[in-house]
Amino acid sequence: MWKLIGNRWKNQRGFTLVELMVVVAIIGILVSIAVPSYQKVTETARKNACQANMRAVLGAVQILRMENAGVNLAGRLDEQHALMAVKLFSEVPTCPSGGDLYYSIDVDNDGTITIACPNGHHIRKEGAGGE
Fold first, then answer.
1. Global pTM value
2. What is the pLDDT of residues 48-71, one digit of tens each?
3. Residue 86 and residue 6: Cα distance in Å, rounded?
4. Range of 109's domain?
5. In sequence order, which residues have a C-beta less than 8 Å from that of residue 93 and are 6 or more positions away?
6. Does 5 fall in a domain?
7. Structurally, how many domains does the chain consist of?
């Protein structure tokens, strides 16, 4: 019995070149499908994180407006470090797309708040008309 099993394994030489090429082709097809999907998912995650950061900054500006009722903040929030001064953030939020991309904050005379990212993302909260 062992002789039959031993002979069977001796006749096995391994994979043929054609079999290896088929496997490599299949792996190549899978990679060509997976990489763009992965890149799309990571870009979507960055955009969602950027939107969440901008909503947090918008909330902080609204808190700042409530704490400083009667003070017109139009044009005074040209730097986000103003938000750190009131201890609303432990560190200045940056865009997750990379680098030191800070959000710009614009408060109009009518109370409209616009938070913008250098990558083109932005959110806007219409004001209640003056402060």
1. 0.64
2. 998 998 888 888 888 877 777 766
3. 80
4. 16-125
5. 53, 56, 57, 80, 102, 103
6. no
7. 1
